[in-house]
Amino acid sequence: MFGDYSIGDLGAIFAMQGFAGLILFSVYVLMALGLAIIFGQMGVINMAHGEFMILGAYVTWLTSSFFQSHLPSLFSGYFFVAMILAFIASGALGMLVEWGLIRHLYKRPLDTLLATWGLSLILQQAYRSVFGAREVGVELPQWMMGSKQVTDTIEVPINGIFVMVLTLGITMVVAYIMYKSRWGRQVRAVVQNRVMAGAVGINTEKVDRYTFGLGCGIAGIAGSAFTMIGSTGPTSGQLYIVDTFLVVVFGGAASLFGTIASAFTISQAQSTMEFFMSGSMAKVLTLLTIVAILMIRPQGLFALKVRK
Amino acid sequence: MLIGHQPKEFLLAVEGLTVSFDGFKAVNDLSFYVEENEIRVIIGPNGAGKTTVLDLICGKTKATSGSVQFRGTELTKLKENQIVQAGVGRKFQTPSVYDDLTVFENLEISYPRGRSVFGSLMFKRDAAVRERVEEVAEMIFLKDRLNMYADVLSHGQKQWLEIGMLLIQDPDLLMLDEPVAGMSVSERVKTAELLNTIIKNRSVLVIEHDMKFVEDIAHKVTVLHQGQILSEGTMEKVQNDPKVIEVYLGH
Amino acid sequence: MINSRFFNRSELLGFLSLLLLLAVILPLFLDVFRLNLVAKYLTYAFVALGLVMCWGYGGILSLGQGVFFGLGGYCMAMFLKLEASSVANTKIQSTPGIPDFMDWNQITSLPMFWKPFHSLTLTIIAILVVPTLLAFIIGAAMFKRRVGGVYFAIITQAIAAIATILIIGQQGYTGGINGMTDLRTLNGWDIRTDHAKVILYFFEVFVLFACIITAQFIRLTKLGRILVAMREQEDRVRFSGYSVANFKIFAFCAAAMFAAIGGAMFTLQIGFMSPSFVGIVPSIEMVIYTAVGGRMSIFGAVYGTLLVNYAKTMLSESFPELWLFGLGGLFIAVVLFFPNGLSGIWRDHVARHIDRLIAMRSSKSKKAWAIKSAADGAPAE
User: Fold this and answer.
1) DSSP 3-state assignment of B89?
2) Interface of A with B (CB under 8 A)
3) Can you list the domains of chain B with their CATH numbers?
4) What distance in Å separates the CA atoms of residue C165 and residue A113, rounded to the nearest whole number?
5) More exposed terminus of chain C, fewer Cβ within 10 Å: N or C?
6) How high does pLDDT run on average in chain A?
7) Scanning every residue of chain A, which has its alpha carbon at the shortest distance from the alpha carbon of B25?
8) What is the pLDDT of residues A225-245, one digit of tens each?
9) A205: how many CB neighbours lie within 10 A of its CB?
């Protein structure tokens, strides 16, 4: 199998395959971060999470078009504006959905799953009606194009590096919010004992709404980042939803570190296997392995042993 | 299995039982013995590990170490349903009955026959089942409510129904977690009467806070504190134990 | 004393009206094309029926029923495909006597796992056993470890995704994304004629009613009551001496077998099978049929399936854009406003009045009804 390659070539292929895995890892992490908050912390299954991400992608696309036609001089910096707008748009929609739908279903997790699936269908069709069925791609600013030569055989694309740096930054912000801020403590208090949290003066309804909004907002940012490496269509979100749920469950739903570790494992496994076999078989094997491991260890990789 | 390797024939022998949740030992090296036909009450302040002890015996929680011997059978290695089949019945703190089934059906499900998948498909509601259900319904004061759905019962009636569901299992060891909690005064009196009839020919392990009630029924009292035994003996002995007074009255 | 009859009055009404509708009214008034459409809808009713058992009664939501539907369908399709690929029919191929898609994918001999599908008996056994066995393996692995609720739903959904990718990826063995097409005869009998379609329709209705009666039988045994009990108080059932996992496995396997029968019927009726009936989207759509009909109602499942599919055909013929909005809205509306679906609406708004009328006339009103209808219970969770 390796006969045709020299050792150096082989190393370069693995390095580049590893880098491709890192980009996939970034997408998983960005999508999973939002889910880890909504599912891991609140216990809510949001099947429309992918559509919240796609909303962010469309917002980014709109922003880039706007800058292109009206503010071409500032085009190189449009992405940062787009990211903020994507966060606001998806977050606001998330809060609306929490108010209109999710809060009525906190005690019925399976029903939440079905209702949010319905929501995802509606959003998909709405995107199709508004933006058309064709996939749209944003134009990258000059500085993000091209690739960086690491050695004479290895080169990595700059947009990939950018997405990874962005992922790192967002992860750190989320970790800070969830584990260090007063608000994060309130979220965890509400999750662990809603009645008690209410009794000590936490506005549980408000915490729920903002938590859900935050999770959806992060999905919006993920969508924004997603436009840097791929094009966006009405159903792009659905492609990732199962994978992302598996990432979160595999990592042990309530653990942020677990989510990241599991995103890394899954993305690396998949991109490495893609080198040896067809993409679809790599995907089948990856998913099968996760499902098999989850059957043996249902609590995921990183879960605390707690009293029921 | 060797029966009678104990110096005295105990029904239940708990030895060195320990469980830890992420380092916190909810029950720590606990040992106690329950004799045939004995009524043992476990008391103790909140968080003493009382409910956890019952959870460990009936298999709801897996022990970290230690052993629970029931008639010489090691329970810690069995599954919950096997422990029930060995003869241990458990009532939960909050009444857990099946709201969407009638009182009759609630009792019938606990009838110890047809417990496998195939057995339950082939289960026939014959005269023996009916008689037994009616007999138990009479004991738990629900005879005229057999065809009602359980969700219309009062809190106290649900507690009785669950006791009835245990009774129909005919366990050798009955474990009750706060059977009179949340009951009205008249319901308490009836429950005490009920318990006095059902404890015949079996051993009972009760968790209870109501001291009057404990005094009425207990043969022997075990006081738990922070997962360990603080004192054990007759109600009188325990009540006068300075360590117990310290825990209950001091801080 | 309680439910000693097989059907109570309202169930008997449901049973007879469904029988009348499917076996008399529809065949009389619909042309063959439309009747074939109904036949297609009814294949999903098998799945919905299974979901009533495992989701409505057992509280186990499977989002992978399409896998079992597909397995049943593919088993049937493999038999039909082999019959259609006789040496005489396929002599232009480089390897005659094997299915055309294998030939296109440079496969030169029939794979081992295809060989049993030369026999109709073995095929029927495979339709019943293979999906059930898969359900048993998944169920045993998960329920024994107390995995349930949303985790089970997500994992079954992942399995649906895996199955689709696998079928599409292995096109030499499965026909790939196009599925198995060009199926012609069943033991020499041409299944494509109008006459055959009508006969197959009645056969399907017969099998569906056999499944309905089986489901009703299960519901009325102690096992049915244990499922209800388990959904409400799993621990209480466990501490009454039952192995909860085994009962869940049974419910899941029964649902898988019903789905597989539906899949096999689909292949016979429609003449092909493809991965588009296996994946995540069709699987979750099958759940909504059950939800619309009423997750606790055996007859509701059939009515719900017919209604949703009829609406789908109507809307996607005339306003394709509206259909997804409609379906999405249906998911949300059923969950938020009608958790007991059509059967709940029927029970709360129609049956109550009928009963009051009957009660007034017989003047011997029984208390039982005032307490609660015996047929269905409140939603789970």
Assistant:
1) strand
2) 304-308
3) 10-249 (3.40.50.300)
4) 23
5) N
6) 84
7) A307
8) 888 878 888 888 888 888 888
9) 13
